[in-house]
Structures are given as C-alpha cells and as structure tokens.
Write a structure and sequence with these properties.
The chain is α/β, with parallel strands linked by helices. The protein folds into three domains: 101 residues, no CATH class; 143 residues, no CATH class; 64 residues. It has two helices and 34 strands. It has a 24-stranded mixed β-sheet that branches. Strands 6-1-5-8-7 form a five-stranded antiparallel β-sheet, with no helix packed on it. Helix 1 packs antiparallel against helix 2.
C-alpha cells in the first residue's frame, strides 16, 4: 500500500520569493507578503493518507511505500493518530534535511522593508537590519539590531532596539513588559513594565506602569509613569521645548482621561457656537436646536465617563512610589504632576529628587544617596 504526505503548510515556501497580496477592489498590498509560515503548538502540520489510484496530481516526492512521518525538531507524532504530525511549540515550519521542523526564533537577516513586508510572528523575532518607515512587526519578544524608523511594533513581552529608535509621528512601539533602546526620538513608547534608554529620549511620548530610566537627556514630549522616573544628565530642553511628567495613576487611565478632556473642550466649543447661532432668531433656533440637544447629550455622557475614570484613578493611586530623580539638571519649563499635584519648574535645579509628601511636592537633594 502506498501513502502520500499531505501538508498543511507550503513545503516549497521560499521567503526570498514573495508576492504582494491582492486585497479588496483588486488592489495589491505591498506591505502584506506573508513572510513567515506560523504554526502553534498542537497544530497538525502534515498527515499521511492512503494514496489514490491515480497519482498524477500528487508530487512524487511525497509518495511513500511505508507510513513514516518526517519528524524533525519541535515536531511530534500525534499520540491519538500515528498518521499525523503536530508542532510541539509555537514557531515557523519548514523542511530541513528532508525533515519537517519548527523553529522558535525567527531571524530576519536584513531590513524589514518591501522585500519582507509586515512580519507577524507567533514567537521570538530578531531583525538584524533596519525596520523601515511604514512597516509593522508583531511577535512575542522582538530584538532589532539596527535602527527603528517610523514603524508600528507590538511585542507581547519585551522589545529591544540596540541602535535606537529614530521615529516619526507614526512610530509606535507597544511592549507587554519592558522596552530597551540605545536612544529614542519622535516616537511613542508604551510598556507594561519598565523603559530603559541608554542615551537620550527626545520629543517622545512614553506610557509605562513601572520605572523609566534615561541615562542622558529627557527633552520634549510627555511621560505617563507609575513608579520612578530617572534622568541622569538633563531633564527638559528649555521653555520652548514642552516636557511633562505625569505620575501617580495607571497610565492607561491617565491617557484616557486626557483624551476625554480634549473631547470635552471640542464639545464645549461646539455648544457655544450653536448657542450663538440659536440666539440670532427663532428660525435659527428651530434649525439648530436638535444639533444643540445632541451636543449637550454628548457632553453629559463625557462628564459621566470623566467622573468614572477619575474614581478609578483615585482607587488605583500609588502616590508613595512616585519620584522624579535627576542627578543632573532640570531646566526651566518642565512640568511635573504627581497625583494631581502640579508644578512648573521656573529655574535651573541640580541634583534633586521630586516626590509627594503630606499632599505637597517636595524637592530634596542629593538626588541619590551613595551607599
């Protein structure tokens, strides 16, 4: 009896010969090339079946006289069906030395660009080149050995940029745990735990649940943190470079509250405009009263949500942990807020730690105590 091996992946897949996907309307998406064949643990990746009488449609390479599965690294025979081959871990599937294998770490030996397209992967990813503007990465842990440009990156665990992040407004990096980079500029960083910047952080928006460490300058941008912010050399870039640190509450809630407050401002302006129009005449009121009622209803809903978020923030506050530690210099213009207690720095400060004590922001020196 003859058998043939049915694959649940492309056994001839070649990541160097990719074609863009066709999307709705017949358009071609040059960012979607299908760079990797993902499999998850327990997934059937191949199966032995009885060969049909007519084997013209079957690749002779996968016809065999005995039912022997090509078991390679990180694959296993299904204990419930000896004719099925399963992946034993998350990774990408491929043939190596005539065996089906699954590998955990995906290495991209070059840049992420139009040759690779976006890369969505189920395990750890290493990019040895540059991540170019406009491309996306998703994986568990992500290491980029060269520069990250204006990319969108999501790591379920940690993210590292060994040579730094030189982004643009479209550059967003979201990590489930920690972010580490040589430097960062013009980007948005979101971390479930800590952010560590070896050099400087310039004009960057950061949101994190743990501690932020910037060894050199933190200049421009906004930081939402829930623990410690450490800046080794310089915090702020002067009065013309807005730099804000907001601490004490869960960053997700702080950002959400900020978004609602902006919406409140917009709706308030809209209500004021409509009230002026309605005051002109009875006709104007008749034509615009429904619009005014709609905006007033929106405002009530926004105020209700605003109140709900503030209550959640107060419930989850961790004010005693918050401190801004600067062994170097804080320049005028920096804004610091801990638990709603706000100050704007109007003079140069050196070697200080800012914390909240007895309902007031305290400035103490030295910033760190050597043991």
């Amino acid at each position: 009896m003859k058998y043939y091996l049915r694959h649940y992946f492309d056994p001839f897949f070649d990541h160097t010969k990719l074609s863009p996907s066709t999307v709705s309307g017949g358009r071609v998406d040059h960012h979607c090339l299908g760079y990797v064949q993902n499999v998850i643990s327990g997934q059937i990746i191949a199966e032995l079946l009885p060969a049909p009488e007519n084997t013209d449609s079957i690749n002779p390479q996968f016809l065999m006289d005995s039912p022997v599965l090509p078991v390679g690294p990180n694959t296993v025979v299904n204990p419930d069906n000896n004719f099925q081959l399963l992946a034993s871990r998350n990774g990408y599937v491929f043939y190596h030395e005539n065996l089906i294998s699954v590998k955990k770490l995906l290495n991209i030996h070059g840049n992420v660009n139009f040759n690779t397209g976006n890369v969505i992967y189920v395990n750890d990813l290493c990019v040895e080149g540059i991540v170019r503007t406009g491309f996306e990465l998703q994986a568990r842990n992500i290491l980029v050995k060269d520069i990250v440009e204006g990319a969108a990156i999501r790591s379920l665990d940690a993210f590292t940029a060994e040579k730094g992040i030189k982004g643009a407004k479209s550059c967003v990096i979201d990590a489930g745990s920690n972010i580490r980079a040589a430097f960062c500029e013009n980007c948005e960083l979101q971390a479930g735990n800590d952010i560590y910047i070896e050099g400087s952080a310039l004009h960057t928006r950061m949101s994190l649940n743990g501690s932020l460490v910037v060894k050199e300058r933190l200049q421009g941008g906004k930081v939402y943190a829930n623990d410690m912010v450490y800046v080794g050399e310089q915090l702020g870039g002067g009065r013309n470079t807005p730099t804000s640190i907001i601490m004490g509450y869960p960053p997700v809630l702080m950002k959400k509250l900020e978004g609602i407050e902006k919406m409140v401002e917009t709706v308030e302006e809209r209500i004021a405009q409509l009230e002026k129009i309605c005051a002109k005449s009875t006709l104007h009121r008749t034509e615009n009263s429904s619009k005014l009622e709609f905006e007033e209803k929106r405002m009530r809903a926004l105020r209700k949500e605003q109140k709900r978020i503030i209550t959640l923030m107060q419930k989850n506050a961790q004010l005693d942990l918050c401190r801004v530690v600067v062994p170097g210099v804080i320049r005028p213009g920096v804004e610091i807020s801990i638990g709603g207690h706000y100050t704007k720095i109007n003079d140069y400060l050196e070697n200080v730690v800012v914390s909240l004590r007895d309902g007031e922001l305290n400035f103490n020196s030295p910033a760190t105590i050597k043991k």
